[in-house]
Amino acid sequence: MTLILRNAHLLSGDANPDRAADVDIGIRDSRIEIICAAGSTSIAADREADLNGLLVLPGGIDPHVHVRDLGQAYKEDWSTAGAAALRGGFTTIFDMPNTIPPTENQVALEQKREAVRAAHGNVDARFWLGATDHTLIDLEAMLQRRPADVVGIKLFLAGTSSNEVVHDPETVRAVMRCAARHGLAVAVHEELQACLDAAETTGLPDHASAHGQHRPRECTVEGTRLMCRLAAETGCTLYLVHVSTEEEVAIIREAKAHARIVAEVTPHHLFLDEEILHRIGNVGKVNPPLREPRDVRALQQAVRDGVIDTVGSDHAPHTLDEKARPYHAAPSGFPGLETTFGLLLNAVNRGVLPLHLLPRLTSTRAADVFGLVDRGRIAEGARADLVVLDPAHKWTVDPVLFRTKARYSPFAGMQLTGAVVATLTAGVFVDYR
Ligand code: NCD
Ligand code: ZN
Ligand code: ZN
């Protein structure tokens, strides 16, 4: 055995705390070889670590990360994003295509793979391909090669951050049919550009606190309704990123009965409302915007009900200088990889979320939906991607300590109970406090 983790506390995967257990986990090379009751084995190993009953979950899979790099390496690159992911407990990240160049053809995809290789990081990378009104042939050509590192096709129904917009519903249908043929998911940024363009914004304050009125909720609700209809029509698996409103929750709850719909929530939509924008301004400017307290309540309920499947950070780094511009000129998005697990554990400690949902939200469901068969579960034979958590550790979010280049956060100064202690990828400790 290469490594034994002793006295690791595992969850049983359901709500029954009695079924949780302390175990020893034997790892050979990159795989989990054996899991047995704590202290029951005397197998020797090259290395041992006693976890003293700390909680161990499958390494996080974050389906929604903007790594940037290439033309936007000044905002973030694979080295810093990878380090941020591992610090935050995420061992697999799916990179979004709104990069420079966008991931819309084979050349751009190769460039991205090369950027990952050049960073020599330990995080496992997967890619979303980007769709436009004109790139269907390129997408089809890329998918014909059956790329194992591609999880699906992302489309944006509105402009949000250096991205292409798909305007034509016929293109949306064609993209969904194309993805379905290749057994892949379509992810969508749901806000509809035509709706945003029609929004009455004269007289609104030019300040981030009015961002939710500049980009009204109807636009994301309409987009979600449209996409759920098209998912039912095309049979495509639809991955709804950053669900933010009570109305979308109701639409998704209903649509799941007759379409393959998977819903993601971000930690910021789950735990913050727009009130905070008066204090933090553009730092909290994000698309879709932070919403109302009733939306936060509806999203938390939807997580508890299982209507929400995954948590995606929407890690979207920009420089602090860019965020310091006047409201209209400041880009939307902020980093999230290093706060997700702490925020979720904190919510468990506050009684907002049940602990047993954490693996589902942070890895298991994503592994199942996107066909990552070797991870997302702690089981013999699985890749030894693991995160060690201390649910009782108290800490304060301090962006100065972030690994990402974007050292600010809407959660800065927040005191959390529950923290990432260490992360292992493929059986190797890659980060620990
Ligand atoms: C994202 C970005 O910066 O790439 N910004 C954001 O506000 N969420 C794009 C996106 O996910 O919409
Ligand atoms: Zn988006
Ligand atoms: Zn995003």
Give a short synopsis of this structure.
This protein has 433 residues and is α/β, with parallel strands linked by helices. The chain has 14 helices and 16 strands.
Structural class: alpha/beta
Uncertain stretches of 5 or more adjacent residues: none
The largest beta-sheet arranges its strands as 6-7-8-9-10-11-12-13
What's the number of helices? 14
Helical coverage, percent range:
25-40%
Count up the domains. Answer: 2
How large a portion of the residues is in β-strands, by DSSP E?
15-25%
CATH superfamily placement of the largest domain: Metal-dependent hydrolases
CATH architecture of the largest domain: Alpha-Beta Barrel
Average pLDDT works out at 96
Shape, principal axes of CA atoms: globular
Describe the structure.
It is a single chain. By secondary structure, the chain is an alpha/beta fold. The protein folds into two domains: 2-56 and 380-431, Roll (Urease, subunit C, domain 1); 59-369, Metal-dependent hydrolases (TIM Barrel, Alpha-Beta Barrel). The chain has 14 helices and 16 strands. The protein has helices at residues 78-87, 106-119, 136-144, 169-181, 193-198, 211-214, 217-234, 246-255, 267-271, 277-280, 293-305, 320-323, 340-349, 358-369, and strands spanning 3-10, 21-28, 31-37, 47-50, 55-58, 60-65, 90-95, 124-130, 150-156, 185-189, 237-240, 261-265, 310-311, 386-396, 415-425, 428-432. An eight-stranded parallel β-sheet has the order 6-7-8-9-10-11-12-13. A four-stranded mixed β-sheet has the order 3-2-1-4, with no helix packed on it. Strands 5-14-15-16 form a four-stranded antiparallel β-sheet, covered by helices on one side. Helix 3 (136-144) links the parallel strand 8 (124-130) and strand 9. Helix 7 runs parallel beside helix 8 (246-255). The longest helix has 18 residues, at 217-234. The protein binds N-carbamoyl-L-aspartate (NCD) and zinc ion (ZN) (2 copies). Residues 64, 66, 96, 314, 316 line the site of one zinc ion.
